[in-house]
Specification:
The complex is a heterodimer.
Chain A: H1 7-56, E1 59-60, E2 68-69, H2 73-80, H3 85-116, H4 121-133, H5 136-146, H6 153-160, H7 175-185, H8 188-199, H9 203-211, H10 216-244, H11 248-258, H12 280-290, H13 294-316
Antiparallel strand pairs in A: 1-2
Chain B: H1 2-22, E1 40-45, H2 51-67, E2 71-76, H3 81-90, E3 98-101, H4 107-113, H5 120-126, H6 130-133, H7 136-140, E4 151-163, H8 164-169, H9 179-189, E5 191-192, E6 198-203, H10 214-218, H11 240-253, H12 257-264, E7 282-288, H13 291-298, E8 304-307, E9 324-331, H14 338-350, H15 352-362, H16 369-373, H17 381-391, H18 406-419, H19 426-444
Parallel strand pairs in B: 1-2, 1-3, 6-7
Antiparallel strand pairs in B: 3-9, 4-7, 4-8, 4-9, 5-6
Classes of the chains: A mainly alpha, B alpha/beta.
Chain lengths: 327, 446
């Protein structure tokens, strides 16, 4: 089976090889060229911050002096010596579970209504969409004012109706549900997304279901739901990620409801009442930009990142029921 | 193709790792070699925002510029400590040369980090003897471990404001001096409506109420927060249990935590006309000396007076003491005009005429020995109470610490829980609080 190649036959194959390599190189350059906007964005806004966060989680760094390696000290501090980490994590997870679930359910409900209303559709849709346009701080200020136990109109109206109103943002048991109410009020974003999804369900499937004698529930279960699950999936995943970063509304509500003055000399202590509105992102900010404890802030950020990744991975599995074989 | 891509990724990750290690923004180092007689523009950040306060600081700057025609000052008001901290760390081109803070809490952080420069060399250079100019307790709260990175720019003393008409109606002859008298009078002054809600409360004890933070109330017990090694010693502090019991007793005697919280959360903004002492909803009120100016301006419909806050029953000799704090001023380490900046700091803090004029304008306690004795100081009787509190040898400010006011935040959290009724296992919880404060301190150390 010995083979021999004559020099006369090798020349063209070497030439072809070179030409092929040139073609491959050009293709690689072209591919990288097309990929480069994404590569630059990914590197600058994701990879670098992530690597820097991991790096600083093992460093003592007060944003003034050079970082020094401290091993696992920041990790031990967060997990063993920071009493606020537990409540902040529990609150964040509570908000992720309750707020995301209720927003999705409410969003589908309002979306269904908006697609079925016969008259005044524009008014109905505007009414539900407008609150979403309100800036989060302004919306929260308004909510805290409306729900103020002493002077708020909501409690006064409930009182006139003989209903004993809760202390809303001033009660540790009611502060988070009050934030959920605020989240449901600004449901406009999900309403629009679900409306689009619902209008996209083929009409003939509804007609077929009606001919088969399916009731409203069965129609929703076997026609609507399978069609909108990718959108539900999208709403849940983006909702989880957004709620993991929940910061402004909780901070503003806590600060306003506490009535504690925050002058130029003082620092806002988040979490009022009794740390019930304290979230992990608030702790990250306090540690990183008020106490300049960069290492511990990075540890918390990584914990958040890991949880968000785990929840998203779990939801993306087909077994979660939100993705079908075709998806 | 795949292995080329992998190579690119590997190289990228390595580069990013290097970048992560080196990409820390260290602020530029300033200079103390500038000639303060040369023309220069200084940036000065301060926290004042009220109209009369801003006018007073602008007038102070005008007086300075008249004395130093070569130095122009560009002032920025309503700056928080958070902004100062972040700006000086970022070290941008527009960072301030001279910085001030409304709180003494962060002096330890400013000194230990080197963010505010040590002022002793400047004082030596210009022949300013700080011990002759400034009272000792004010010098103490502007230094950390011997480094004087700040100087007092007026001080604040805390005392009791009381409604004289309400006192007369309740048959109370003079403001309370001990905590027992305080509690008795507060209950006596409280009036309720037919439905049981408060019409007027003798005193709002809850720690979240405006200026009532635990450290301000605890100052009446003269606490020592740290031992010589810098470790928290609240569990060993003799007065802590009495302080907490007194607070809880006040809360209970005045109607309970929930009822008081409900009343408190209905109050308006602290610096508005809706202030509950001004509107007669409170008969006694803990506040700083500046409140008098607001009361004068509001022309409240009752006679009012001032007195030191009561002291523990077993320490009557300390009556007259109070909590001290104040505005502090320093020079940013990143300033390239540190000598010129020092001229401004020196003028604002140690020029007697300037200190007196500024103190009178914003109703703050002057911060130099000469200014405290000045006959030109506001002769208002209510204001004089606070001057006496500031001079009282038992008056104190919380000590500076490495991580700013973090220990006070932990103490505050503890206080919130205790006053609300979380009173079990006090000894154990105080030890745990000490551990927490120490852990936070260690975490801030390099």
């Amino acid at each position: 089976m010995a083979t021999s190649t004559s020099p006369a036959r090798s020349s063209p194959s070497v030439g072809t090889g070179k030409a092929l390599r040139r073609v491959h190189r050009r293709r690689r350059v072209r591919t990288l060229g097309f990929l480069s906007p994404w590569l630059v964005g990914f590197t600058v806004f994701f990879a670098y911050p992530l690597i820097a966060t991991v790096y600083f989680s093992f460093m003592h760094y007060n944003q003034l002096e050079k970082p020094t390696f401290v091993g696992l000290r920041n990790w031990r501090y967060v997990f063993e010596q920071m009493p606020l980490f537990g409540p902040a994590l529990r609150n964040t997870l509570w908000l992720v579970v309750v707020m995301v679930a209720l927003r999705v359910v409410f969003g589908i409900g309002i979306g269904l209504l908006a697609t079925r209303v016969k008259s005044g559709v524009g008014f109905f849709r505007t009414c539900f969409y407008l609150p979403y346009l309100a800036p989060p701080v302004a919306a929260t200020v308004a909510f805290v004012f409306l729900l103020n136990p002493g002077t708020g109109p909501v409690d006064n109206i409930l009182g006139d109706l003989g209903i004993s109103a809760p202390n809303w943002f001033n009660d540790p048991d009611w502060a988070k549900p009050s934030l959920v109410l605020l989240g449901l009020w600004g449901i406009g974003d999900l309403m629009v997304v679900f409306m689009a999804a619902l209008l996209d369900v083929p009409r003939e499937q509804y007609e077929a279901a009606r001919l088969d004698g399916a009731g409203r529930l069965a129609t929703f279960r076997y026609v609507t739901w399978p069609s909108i699950t990718p959108i539900v999936m999208f709403a849940v995943v983006t909702g989880v990620v957004q709620t993991m970063q929940y910061y402004t509304q909780a901070l503003v509500a806590g600060k306003l409801a506490s009535g504690v003055d925050v002058g130029p000399g003082s620092v806002v202590q988040p979490g009022y009442p009794d740390h019930s509105t304290l979230t992990v992102p608030q702790l990250v900010y306090s540690l990183g930009f008020q106490n300049f404890n960069t290492g511990a802030a990075c540890v918390l950020s990584l914990v958040l990142f890991a949880i968000a990744m785990a929840v998203t991975t779990l939801l993306m599995r087909r077994g979660a029921g939100l993705l079908t074989a075709e998806d | 193709m795949a292995h080329v891509f992998l190579r690119v990724v590997r190289a990228g990750v390595a580069a990013l790792c290097l970048l992560a290690g080196s990409g820390c923004a260290n602020p530029p180092t300033g200079s103390d070699q500038d000639d303060p007689t040369q023309p220069v523009t200084l940036r000065f950040w301060h926290g004042w925002s009220e109209k009369n306060e801003v006018r007073a600081i602008e007038e102070s700057i005008e007086r300075f510029e008249a004395q130093h025609p070569n130095i122009k000052v560009r002032a920025t008001g309503h700056v928080t400590d958070e902004t100062v901290n972040q700006a000086l760390r970022a070290g941008g081109g527009d960072a301030p040369d001279v910085v001030s803070s409304f709180t003494t809490n962060n002096v330890g952080q400013y000194c230990s980090s080197g963010m505010w420069v040590d002022l002793d060399p400047f004082m030596r250079k210009t022949g300013l003897d700080k011990h002759r100019v400034f009272p000792k307790n004010l010098l103490d709260y502007t230094a950390y471990q011997g480094e004087q990175c700040a100087l007092p720019l007026l001080a604040d003393a805390y005392g009791l404001y009381y409604n004289k008409d309400a006192f007369a109606a309740a048959g109370i002859k003079r403001p309370p001096r001990t905590m027992s008298e305080f509690r008795r009078d507060a209950v006596k002054l409280t009036r309720r409506t037919a439905d049981g809600s408060y019409r007027r409360l003798g005193f709002m004890p809850n720690f979240r109420f405006y200026q009532n933070s635990p450290d301000r109330m605890f100052a009446q017990w003269g606490p020592r927060y740290f031992d010589r090694k810098g470790r928290s010693r609240l569990a060993e502090e003799p007065g802590i249990r009495d302080f907490l019991r007194t607070q809880r007793g006040l809360v209970t005697a005045l109607g309970g935590y929930e009822a008081l919280e409900e009343f408190r959360t209905g109050f308006g903004d602290e610096f508005s006309a809706a202030h509950p002492f001004q509107t007669g909803k409170l008969a006694m009120h803990l506040d700083g000396e500046w409140r008098g100016l607001f009361l004068d301006k509001a022309e409240v419909g009752f006679r009012w007076g001032t007195a030191p806050l009561p002291v523990p029953d077993d320490r009557p000799e300390t009556y007259g003491r109070g909590y001290l704090t104040g505005t502090v001023i320093g020079i940013a380490q990143s300033s390239r005009h540190q000598n010129a900046a020092w001229e401004l700091v020196r003028f604002l803090t140690s020029d007697t005429k300037q200190v007196v004029a500024f103190a009178n304008a914003i109703h703050n306690v002057p911060s130099t020995k000469a200014a405290l004795r000045s006959p030109e100081l506001d002769a208002d009787r209510s204001f004089r109470t606070f001057l006496r509190i500031a001079r009282n040898r038992y008056s104190s400010a919380p000590p500076a610490s490495l991580n700013g006011g973090q220990y006070l935040v932990s103490f505050q959290d503890f206080g919130y829980g205790y006053e609300a009724g979380d009173t079990d296992g006090l000894d154990r919880r105080l030890r745990s609080l000490d551990h927490q404060i120490d852990a936070d301190t260690v975490q801030a150390q390099n």
